[in-house]
Amino acid sequence: MRSPAWSPVGSDDRYRYSATVLSVFWPESQHRAVIARWPHLAEHLGTTWDGHRQRIERHCALADRNGLGVNQLPATLDGFVAFLAKRGVRKPCGDDLDAYPDLRDVTTAMVPWPPDRTGPCWCGSQRKYKQCCRRHALGALD
Q1: Is residue 95 part of a domain?
Q2: For the chain, how many structural domains are there in total?
Q3: Is the pLDDT assigned to residue 30 strictly greater than 90?
Q4: What DSSP letter does each residue of 68-100 carry, written as one string?
Q5: Cis status of the peptide bond prior to 114, with omega within 30 of 0
Q6: Is residue 4 part of a domain?
Q7: Under a CB-based contact definition with an 8 Å cutoff, are residues 128 and 119 in contact?
Q8: 9 domain-assigned
Q9: What per-residue confidence (pLDDT) applies to 9?
Q10: Would 26 disulfide with which of 6, 31, 101, 105, CB 3.0-4.6 Å?
Q11: Euclidean distance between CA atoms 105 and 129, whole angstroms
C-alpha cells in the first residue's frame, strides 16, 4: 500500500517528485452551518450532507484511481469565516471554497485517504468506514 502523503510522479537525477491532492470536507454539523449562512454555496458543496460526502468520496476515489495520494482536511465555519475576513470577502463564492483553507494557517491534522475498511470513517461519523461511507458506495465511479 502506498503512502497517501507521497505518490511518485516523476524524477530527475537529484529528486523524486510526488503529487498529493488536498480534499477539504465539511463535517455534517459544519456543512449544515455553512449552508444555513450562505445557501448559494449549496451548489458547490451539495445541498445535503449525503450529497456533500458523495462528492467528496467520489473526488477522493477519482484522485486515488489516477495514482495521486489524497489527504483530507475537515473544514469549519469559524475557520472559513476567518479565511474570508483575511481576504476581505463578504459573500463567498465557489472560488473562495476552492481557495480555502490557507495551508500556511492550518493546525488541524490531515487524514490520509482511503481509510482502512475497519478504521474510522473519514466523514467524522465515529463509525467504521466499511459501515458508513464505503457501505453506501458513495465513492463508486461507475
Answers
A1: yes
A2: 1
A3: yes
A4: -EEEEEE--HHHHHHHHHHHT-SS--HHHHHH-
A5: yes
A6: no
A7: yes
A8: no
A9: 56
A10: 31
A11: 29
